[in-house]
């Protein structure tokens, strides 16, 4: 097994490559909004530096969301292209799971958050039990106050997302907040788990997980619901 | 044979190339029921090693190429292996190494081309074909694939130079004769080519030098792989015989276009400067946007990312090609919708990276300029091109490939926009161009005298006033309680637009002394405009080139062609290039550096 993985769900680009036993290498490039410019050069550099041939890669993993729409599409379109060339299976990963896996928590509960703009957060809760990461809630999009209430005993992780301020409650205990992002190690671990527990999908089948309709669709539905029937 | 788990394999033990195939007449007579067309060539994966060992054993009674040695060899960074597969069954294999430099594995390493040697020394280590399939051109195809891969994607046109070496056992006389007839020359003798003391001769030839003449002439000879025993009497035994010339010179370009609401992919074949569209798939998103009364950028992007792998698959399938046969990937980087552009650009980079071929970013408008050049009798610059679409009305002087000057444009609405607005006013629906064009055929173009702003002089145009004039005229008639014919309005309006466009086009051709004019863009599908340009050009003694209708609107074939031309001129684009929603045509004018 040799998995090539990429994440472009936040403002950074994360790539990793590794087999079932170990992470061979990875990198994070944090130049905001330059996913399309950075991703392939990063993959190329990674494989070249490690002397891994593209033919050695047995599967392609990519975070399908939630996260920045444009970023997700860059990651998915790019990795689908890679998968199409080698007819490789693709593994869609949750960006929140990778984020939670990267949290420096030995034992306890974790709330992973990604800025969803418009005053909302993408979030999901996880627990680290005996070293294993266990999901406690599905990926969702909600106002910070909702997250703060649910994550009152959790360590909250995510880049530049201040739940306590946004919640404006002042009393909750979601103060244990760590400004951390996705890491190559976590990306590799989650991709290996995905490859070991599923057979993957084809490049034609993989799709972003937006969790949110487009404004045009929302407005259209709103208008239609107001129209007399 | 000593079983070696060799990270290093000396060339002296792999001299089985010449006598690789023992296809005799009887086995050839009993041809497999499956068709040769079902055989596909692909980059060999280590997983085929077992089958290679088996094939070697069948052919030679011993597997010098054990499974372990074969898979190690395939995994090497400097090796290149092609398998001929029928479903998953291996029926042929060819592979070897590059002794100088390395294979252009990724598009990124490809950027270093200028620094690497221009002469490649490739060593073909193994060529085996299943005896049941001997004499049917498979060995030749494998060798062609190997050679093409070795020569990278630049090839003779860019002055690349490849020397391929093969070690042929001295006693494999027929094979030696054949290789010699292909222009190979003896360059060395090897006392022991297989570890059993079998002497061999090293033959070598330059692919770049001979690709055009020698191989073209020699292809009437026998099939390389099937000739060892039977000699060269197998000529013509198979219908499909890609010649060296074709395999060496023909390159496939994959084009992707996602600048607006069409997801498009195309495969273009380029050989000897001639191009041929093998497939052009356009998936329109009309349904997605219909209920919103216009294009919703986020919806378009969502549809693109869902559709692009399927559209690419479809384009390849129609072209009967695989991604491993693609030599260049081209994609639109602008102008267009930012999120939409990113999808095609990303897919193209991912494919180029994984396939180890160069990537080139294309200006969408440059694509439209090349639409007329997609037909068999393609025009060559210099020429004057009129680009008319819903978003653009440009007169472009094309002095040469990559040398454009916008010499005239609209000062307000695009011509296509005027069509849409008038069609909406007449209640003809969207898009308006085709509706007005169809209705015009039944109307009198002289029924109304609509204005032709700015027609008298200059090369710039204006369509906003014309649209207003139509509205004002119909309101006036309506106020007086008079009736009118929509067909007459459509015909008169269209006549005014076409009159302006054609006048400006021929004026520009005259001013810049161009003997050739061409059309491009969605409005170029308009029957009236096509006729006016054709007849006007013939009166003036100019040559007019008008793209097929389906190539006027957004498509990826034109992107593939513009990409190829860009690549020929200035090489690949950097993989760090991003989308540019406002990319101007002028930014690719210099023909020097990259659009960056």
List descriptors.
heterodimer, A: 229 residues, alpha/beta, Nucleotidyltransferase, domain 5, six-stranded mixed β-sheet, five-stranded mixed β-sheet, B: 596 residues, Aminopeptidase, 3 domains, seven-stranded mixed β-sheet, 37% helix, elongated, disordered N terminus, disordered C terminus
In short:
The complex is a heterodimer of chains A (229) and B (596). Chain A is built from seven helices and eleven strands.
- Which stretches of chain B are low in confidence, meaning pLDDT under 50 for 5 or more residues running? 1-31, 100-119, 153-161, 208-248, 587-596
Per CATH, the superfamily of the largest domain in chain A is: ATPase, nucleotide binding domain
How many discrete structural domains of chain A? 2
For the record, the CATH class of the largest domain in chain A is Alpha Beta
Order of helices and strands of chain A: EEEHEHEHEEEEHEHEHH
Report the radius of gyration of chain B as a whole number of Å.
29 Å
CATH second-level architecture of the largest domain in chain A: 2-Layer Sandwich
Question: Mind explaining what this structure looks like?
Answer:
The complex is a heterodimer of chains A (229) and B (596). Chain A has 229 residues and is an alpha/beta fold. Chain A is built from 7 helices and 11 strands. In chain A, the strands form 2 sheets. In chain A, strands 6, 7, 8, 9, 10 and 11 form a 6-stranded mixed β-sheet that branches. A 5-stranded mixed β-sheet of chain A has the order 3-2-1-4-5, with helices on both faces. In chain A, helix 2 (69-86) links the parallel strand 4 (59-65) and strand 5 (90-94). The radius of gyration of chain A is 18 Å and the shape is globular. The termini of chain A are far apart. With 596 residues, chain B is an alpha/beta fold. Chain B has 3 domains: 11-249, Gcn5-related N-acetyltransferase (GNAT) (Aminopeptidase, 3-Layer(aba) Sandwich); 251-372, Nucleotidyltransferase, domain 5 (2-Layer Sandwich); 383-546, Nucleotidyltransferase, domain 5. Chain B has 21 helices and 17 strands. Chain B has helices at 25-29, 49-60, 67-75, 107-110, 138-150, 173-181, 207-210, 214-218, 227-230, 244-249, 286-290, 297-319, 338-355, 364-370, 415-425, 432-440, 464-479, 486-511, 527-540, 549-552, 557-570, and strands at 39-43, 79-86, 89-98, 119-129, 161-169, 185-190, 200-206, 251-257, 262-271, 274-284, 326-334, 359-363, 383-388, 393-400, 403-409, 516-520, 543-545. In chain B, helix 2 crosses helix 3, helix 15 (415-425) packs across helix 16 (432-440) and helix 18 runs parallel beside helix 19 (527-540). The longest helix of chain B is centred in the C-terminal third of the chain and has 26 residues, at 486-511. The two termini of chain B are 57 Å apart. The relative contact order of chain B is 0.10. At the A-B interface, helix 1, helix 2 and helix 7 of A face helix 4, helix 12 and helix 13 of B.
């Amino acid at each position: 097994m040799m998995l090539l993985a990429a994440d472009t769900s936040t403002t950074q680009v994360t790539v990793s490559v590794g087999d079932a036993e170990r992470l061979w290498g990875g990198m994070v490039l944090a130049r905001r909004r330059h996913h399309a410019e950075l991703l392939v050069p990063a993959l190329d550099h990674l494989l070249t530096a490690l002397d891994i041939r593209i033919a050695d890669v047995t599967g392609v993993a990519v975070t399908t969301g939630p996260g920045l729409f444009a970023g997700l599409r860059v990651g998915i379109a790019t990795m689908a292209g890679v998968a199409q060339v080698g007819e490789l299976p693709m593994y869609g990963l949750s960006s929140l799971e990778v984020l939670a896996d990267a949290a420096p928590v030995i034992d306890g509960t974790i709330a992973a958050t990604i800025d969803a703009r418009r005053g909302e957060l993408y979030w999901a809760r996880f627990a680290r039990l005996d070293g294993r990461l266990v999901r406690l809630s599905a990926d969702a999009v909600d106002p910070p106050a909702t997250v703060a209430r649910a994550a009152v005993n959790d360590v909250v992780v995510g880049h530049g997302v201040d739940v306590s301020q946004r919640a404006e409650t002042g009393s909750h205990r979601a103060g244990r907040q760590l400004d951390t992002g996705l890491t190559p190690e976590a990306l590799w671990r989650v991709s290996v788990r995905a490859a070991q527990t599923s057979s993957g999908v084809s490049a034609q089948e993989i799709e972003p997980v937006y969790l949110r309709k487009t404004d045009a669709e929302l407005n259209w539905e709103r208008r239609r619901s107001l129209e007399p029937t | 044979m000593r079983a070696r788990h060799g990270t290093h394999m000396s060339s002296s033990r792999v001299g089985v190339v010449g006598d690789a195939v023992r296809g005799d007449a009887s086995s050839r007579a009993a041809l497999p029921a499956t068709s040769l067309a079902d055989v596909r060539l692909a980059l060999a994966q280590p997983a085929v090693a077992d089958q290679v060992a088996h094939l070697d054993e069948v052919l030679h009674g011993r597997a010098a190429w054990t499974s372990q040695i074969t898979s190690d060899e395939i995994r090497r960074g400097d090796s290149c292996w092609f398998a001929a597969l029928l479903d998953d069954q291996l029926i042929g294999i060819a592979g070897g190494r590059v002794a100088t430099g390395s294979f252009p594995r990724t598009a990124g390493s490809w950027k270093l081309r200028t620094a690497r040697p221009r002469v490649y020394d490739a060593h073909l280590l193994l060529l085996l074909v299943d005896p049941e399939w001997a004499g049917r051109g498979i060995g030749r195809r494998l060798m062609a694939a190997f050679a093409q891969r070795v020569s990278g994607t630049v090839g003779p046109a860019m002055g690349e130079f490849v020397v391929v070496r093969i070690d042929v056992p001295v006693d494999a006389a027929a094979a030696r004769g054949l290789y010699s007839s292909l222009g190979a020359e003896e360059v060395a003798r090897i006392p022991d080519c297989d570890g059993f003391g079998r002497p061999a001769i090293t033959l070598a030839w330059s692919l770049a030098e001979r690709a055009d003449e020698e191989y073209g002439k020699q292809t009437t000879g026998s099939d390389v792989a099937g000739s060892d025993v039977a000699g060269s009497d197998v000529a013509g035994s198979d219908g499909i015989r890609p010649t060296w010339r074709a395999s060496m010179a023909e390159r496939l370009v994959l084009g992707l276009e996602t600048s607006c609401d069409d997801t498009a992919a195309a495969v273009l074949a380029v050989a000897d400067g001639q191009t041929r569209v093998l497939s052009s798939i356009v998936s329109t998103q009309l349904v997605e946007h219909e209920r919103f009364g216009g294009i919703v950028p986020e919806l378009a992007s969502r549809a693109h990312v869902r559709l692009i792998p399927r559209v690419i698959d479809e384009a390849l399938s129609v072209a009967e090609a695989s991604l491993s046969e693609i030599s260049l990937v081209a994609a639109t980087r602008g102008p267009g919708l930012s999120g939409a552009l990113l999808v095609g650009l990303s897919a193209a980079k991912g494919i180029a990276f994984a396939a180890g071929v160069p990537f080139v970013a294309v200006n969408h408008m440059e694509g439209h300029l090349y639409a007329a050049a997609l037909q068999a009798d393609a025009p060559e610059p210099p020429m004057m091109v009129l680009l008319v679409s819903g978003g653009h009305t440009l007169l472009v002087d094309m002095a040469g490939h990559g040398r454009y000057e916008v010499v005239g444009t609209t000062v307000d609405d695009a011509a296509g926009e005027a069509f849409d607005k008038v069609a909406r006013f007449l209640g003809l629906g969207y898009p308006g161009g085709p509706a007005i064009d169809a209705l015009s055929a039944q109307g009198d173009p002289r029924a109304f005298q609509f204005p032709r702003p700015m027609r008298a002089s200059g090369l710039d145009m204006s369509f906003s006033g014309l649209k207003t004039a139509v509205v004002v005229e119909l309101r006036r008639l309506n106020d007086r309680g008079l009736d009118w014919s929509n067909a007459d309005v459509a015909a008169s309006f269209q006549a005014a637009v076409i009159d302006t466009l054609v006048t400006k086009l021929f004026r520009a051709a005259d001013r810049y002394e161009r003997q050739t004019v061409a059309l491009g863009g969605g409005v170029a599908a308009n029957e009236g405009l096509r006729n006016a340009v054709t007849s006007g050009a013939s009166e003036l003694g100019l040559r007019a080139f008008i793209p097929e209708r389906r190539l006027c609107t957004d498509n990826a074939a034109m992107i593939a062609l513009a990409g190829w031309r860009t690549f020929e001129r200035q090489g690949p684009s950097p993989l760090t290039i991003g989308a540019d929603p406002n990319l101007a045509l002028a930014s690719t004018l210099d023909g020097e550096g990259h659009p960056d």
